Each structure stands twice: as structure tokens, then as C-alpha cells.
Amino acid sequence: MKFYLDTANLDQIRAGAELGLVDGITTNPSLIAKEGMDFKTLVGKICEIIPGPVSAEVVATERDAMLKEARELAKVADNIIVKLPTIPEGVKALKRCVDEGIKVNMTLCFQPSQALIVAKIGATFCSPFLGRLDDIGHDGMTVLEEIRLIYDNFGLQTKILAASLRHPLHVVQAAKIGADIATMPYAVFDKLLDHPLTDIGLERFLADWKKTQS
Ligand code: E4P
Q1: Banded pLDDT at 110 (limits 50, 70, 90)
Q2: How far is the CA of 195 from the centre of ligand 1 (A)?
Q3: In a 3-state reduction of DSSP, which class is residue 82?
Q4: Which CATH class is domain 2-212?
């Protein structure tokens, strides 16, 4: 399973890159807005740090305007993945992007039927937002399981990008189900290796070792 960071913060992206564990980046308009930098300049900088796929989202909501933004974003760097919302106009724009060879991550996916449609058209990634489903009392992981099953049934090549992950357990559950990628905020990424028993155990080992040295 690949790990992506869900952030547009350059410090977090550099920190993750130093660990050598970040396979890609997802951003969205809310994350970009937090950074107070010109969109394309920021995305370009992210692409210089991370050689893997970097998702950048359009803000238009009508096919031709989305397509115009998609073409411009695709020019920023070779590793840009254009993010389009999973709405009818987004699906129309997806078709055109696929025809033009622009790689697309279909975002704001909340149900398997949406995932099936975008995969049939040829999206490179489909992003089910699991935490946001949990937030409204639905079971995000069940939706993920259904998408995995459908893609496997038909050999659909679209990668499942498990998104809106809120804690390490979400990452583990998504891995068990077989999501191709987990994208997570830096705070979740940072917790993946943490366990208090690891820290206590190490402390004890070192204390015992020290005794043998005196
Ligand atoms: C993914 O591409 C999205 O940017 C992200 O996972 C949304 O997560 P949120 O629901 O925590 O905002």
C-alpha cells in the first residue's frame, strides 16, 4: 500500500519526504487556501519535493471550465494528477481528460456506484472519503470494501485512494481491505509508528544494558 500525505504544507511535505515514506501528495482547495501562496507556484514546489503523484484540484464546476483548468494544471509538472469532483460535469470532463492523456483523481466519492462509473471511464485514481462518511453515521470501510470488490470483479485498473482518513486504525483497515493508497494528514502519518509499549520497552532495554556497563 502506498502512503500519500494529504497536505499542501511544504514543511510537512519536506519532513515526510525525509523519512522516505511519502509516495505522493493529495491537496484540495481547503488545504491550498491554508497556505496563503499562489496555487500553481505552491503545487510546483510540492512537485519538486515529491517525485510521485501530486493531486491538484480544479475549482470550476462546468465541464469546459474544468477542462481548461485541468489542462493548465497538467502543465505545471509531469507528476501532476488533476483532481475533479465526482459530479456529472466532472465525469464529462474526466472523459475528455482521459482522451487527452491527462491523469485524473476523481474526488468526493461517497458511494460504490460513483466509483464504478469513474473507473469505467478511465480515472487513474478514485478517492472515497471514508472519514466524512463515518462523520455522518455511515460506515466508510464498508463502502471501501464494496469498491474493492467491484474493481476486482471487473479487473478495473483505477487505483483506490482511501481518503479522509482520521487515525492510524483507518489506515490499517484500508490496508486490510486492499486500498491501493492511503492519503492522510501529517498528524496521522506521524502516529503510524507510535506505540507507548515500544518506548517503554526501549527504555527498559537501555536501562538494563546500562547496568551491565558499570
Ligand atoms: C483527499 O484527497 C482529501 O483532500 C482529504 O482526504 C479530505 O479529508 P478530510 O475529510 O479530512 O478533509
Answers
A1: very high
A2: 25
A3: strand
A4: alpha beta
Domain boundaries, the chain: 2-212
Using the atom order of ligand 1, give the atom closest to the CA of residue 131.
10
83 is catalytic: yes
pTM value?
0.96
Reported as a pLDDT band with limits 50, 70 and 90, residue 214 is confident
How many Å apart are CA 10 and CA 133, to the nearest integer? 28
Ligand 1 contact, 8 CB (< 6 A): no
How does pLDDT run across 29-88, given as a tens digit for each residue? 999 999 999 999 999 999 999 999 999 999 999 999 999 999 999 999 999 999 999 999
- Sign of the alpha-carbon torsion through 8, 12, 17, 19: negative
All residues at 6 or more sequence positions from 38 whose CB lies less than 8 Å from its CB, including other chains:
none
Active-site residue, selected from the candidate residues 83, 159, 210, 211: 83
Minimal-distance CA residue to ligand 1 atom 8: 164
Q: What distance in angstroms lies between residue 143's CA and the mean position of ligand 1's atoms?
A: 16
Q: Give me the chain's average pLDDT, please.
A: 97
Check pocket membership of 105 for ligand 1, CB cut-off 6 A. Answer: no
